[in-house]
Each structure stands twice: as C-alpha cells, then as structure tokens.
Amino acid sequence: MNNSVTRKNVKFLPDSSRVLARFFNNGEIRTKNLVERVLALDPETLNRELHHTLQDFAGRHRNISRIFMEHFQNHVPFLKHIGMDPSKFAEEQKMLFGSYATMEYSIESAAMFNPSIIEDFDQSFLAKGEKRVIISFRATGEGHLSSIVFRRGILDENNDLKLPKVRNHIDMPKIGKKKSYDKKRFQQKLREMQISEEYSAIIMEHLPERFEYDQLRNSVDKVLKNGLSMDKKIALEEMTWLVDSYYDLEFSMDSDISERVIFPISPSESKGIEDARFVRFQDDDGSEKVYGTYTAYDGNTILPKLLSTEDFINFRIMPMHGKAAQNKNFALFPKKINGKYAVLARVDGVNNYLMYSDRPTLWHDPIKIQEPKYPWEFTQIGNCGSPIYTNEGWLVITHGVGPVRRYCIGASLFDLDDPTKEIGRLSRPLLSPLEEEREGYVPNVVYSCGAMIHNESLILPYAVSDYASSYATVEMKDLISALTGK
C-alpha cells in the first residue's frame, strides 16, 4: 500500500509577517489616562503623531485609518460612562486614540497546520485534467490562539498543485450578530450545557417565544447589577456566552481568499478556533453550499460549531446542539443519507460515532461504528475529515494514536446506504511521520482535516507535527483494493 503513496514536494510554512490589526483594551484606568493625554495634545503635535502612525502602518494593513476609527468606536460606551462626549472629539483625535486601542497580531507565527481541501465552486478557464481547489488551514499565533486561513490553487493532470502568490494584507470581516432566537431551542442548549433552570429562568421567563439579541443582553446586564450569588452570575454569563456564539461574517469582495481570516470573535472562541473540517454539501434539490465544522475553545470549555458559505465571502456561524454535541471531530457527510443529515464524531474521545439528524446543528443518539483495533490506533481513533463518496462505499480517512502519542493516518470504507457497516479498514497506517517530519510543535504527528479525489487519486493534505503542512497523493484503485480485499 505504501508504494501507492506519493508525498509531494510542497510545504505550507507559517509566515510571521502576516499580521492583523486587532482591538486592544488597555483597561479602564489606562484607557482614561490615554484619552486624556490625546485630548491634551496641541493640533500640530496631534497631526504629526497621527501622520507618522498612519505612514508606519498603512502599508501593512488594508485601510488602517478605518481600523483605528472602528477601535475608537469600541470605546465609545466607556467614554460616555466616564462623562465624556465622543461626538465632540475631532476626527484626528478619534483616529489617534484608536491607534492606542490597536495591536498587531501575527496569525501564523507559531504554526500553519491541520489542512482541509475541497473543490472550488469556480472551475472556469482550466485546462484538461485541472481542478481549482480551496485549502483551509489552522493558523496559530502568539499564545496558541488559532484561526482559519485559506489558499486557492489548481491541481493539474499530474496532481501537482499550482499556487498563486499569497497576498500580504489580512482582511478582517464585518461582523453581524444573529437578530433573533427561538426560546425553546435556546433553553434546550442551556440544559445541554448543564446550566441550572433555576438560574436561567431568572432571564428566560421574561423573554418572548422568539427574542432579540439585545433583549437577552439587556436583561442579563440588568440582573447582573443586583446582588447575585457567584453560581447565578456564572450561569447568566454562560447564557451570554452562548448567544454570542451566533454571528455572520462578511469579507470585502475585492479581497483575495488568502487575505481572509476567520479569527476568534465570540467568547466561546476566545482561546481559538480549532481543526475546521470543510465539505462541499449537495442538498436533495441539487443546491450546493460549503459547511465547515470546528471546535471553539474558551480555555475551559469546548463548543462544536458549524459555519456555512456559498462564496467564501459571506459566512454564517452557529453552535451545534444536542446531547451528543459535546466533543471534537465533527465531520459532515457531503449529502443526506436516507433523507437525513449525517455526521461523524468522536463523542467519547476514543471511538468513531455516526449520527443522523433533520438539521445540521442538532445531534443526538450517537452510534458507535469504530473503535481502536490495531496497535497504531490503540489510544484513540477519529476521522480526518468528511467522508468521501466512491462507488464502492464511503471512504473515511482516519487518524489513530499509538505508542508515545504518535499520530498516523489510516483509511476505512463504509456502506453507502448504511454507514454503520464497515466494509474494510487498513491494518497499517496510510501515512506515518517520516524521520524528517517528526520534529515540530507537537512531535511525531501527521494529521489531516479533509481530503478529496482528483484524477483517480486521493489528494491528502496533511499537517507535519503541528507546525507546517504538505500533501500526498494515493492511487484510488490500490486504496480501494486494500480496503475491499479485491
């Protein structure tokens, strides 16, 4: 089987020069002192300092002046709270103060790993045997904070990947909050999060059956001002944590896909967005969209989340619900099975499970379909991305953890109509860390978040020891033969 695996000489390396300008809160005392110092500047000094700042950073960001103004606006509620009238500030004062509320963050300074690949919607102007693809990566920077970045490329007839030059600027999207929420669904998710109904009822009983975002936030903020016990305060803060997990993103249409980054936005993602698994999904009516499943992490709790897009410009983000939406490794099937959405997940942290649902965000009743069988996967087994349709069955690329936490990539085949039935599984890894791939942020790891088929070959992007990424190809006829024994 290993003779059919070809590692390509392409490396995706982290680039510390790719920075975004993120909001920075100095704290109330420092912020108050800063704004007073900015307001005290004479016009000549104010204009000189603003000019130098814009000159220093304009070449590093798309429209840095707009970013400074947005970061000023983030402080408007606080400025009003301390008795200032922001509307009376000069534009130059707003912009310079906004620069003090800004910091650069290198999104790829630590790693660029755990890739996923899908076919692009746009397949125009290609030669015979070519396919345009989109590759996602988990980019990690200072403090191990993870985000999602993208690259667009073209696979040729030999499965070699042609990549355009990566753009320098990072584009931050406009963020829109979900406008309204269904009360029953929201209460169900609170129960799944084990938030006491005694505490949540303080807020929920006063809300209509379909409530607005601001209604919940205002109610929570009002109640939090009262003398509540610590348990009640935590419960109410977790409610806002949940409601902030719904949002929309809109990137500029003139940005390149390599400039777009999905950076942690909500409190549930404050410590990172991990291991996105993208799949091009076709509904029963023939319509298509891209789904991506990922793990949101706030330093204590993980929350499985789903994003959807039809153009990689506009994204909708929402949390997953259900008793089984509690762990990592969610990977959607590319189409419904017997009229139901289907997903793979490692619900218990050790074994592979299958679930069905009428909605792609609601998951109950997991069915165990795989458990560790061979020594290289004795610790745990999980998926390496969404199942891939073949005439012989659903091809599932897996990962297994063996001795000394060594991660290897394997493959399994499942029945098309009933994916609980395993047709075959490789007894040996499809891909193991080579000697030169063993060193990195986490040693002895190869890992993937999604593969695809092109020109009768499996295109398998993979991470190298949680630091960089590459890709390999596998002859499909040999892989299917090894899985079916035919």
TrEMBL record:
Any one GO MF annotation of this record: hydrolase activity, acting on glycosyl bonds
UniProtKB keywords: Glycosidase, Glycosyltransferase, Hydrolase, Transferase
Superkingdom, natural source: Bacteria
A Pfam short name: Glyco_hydro_130
UniProt similarity note: Belongs to the glycosyl hydrolase 130 family.
PANTHER family the record matches: BLL5143 PROTEIN (PTHR34106:SF4), GLYCOSIDASE (PTHR34106)
Protein name per its UniProtKB record: Glycosidase
Provenance organism: Costertonia aggregata
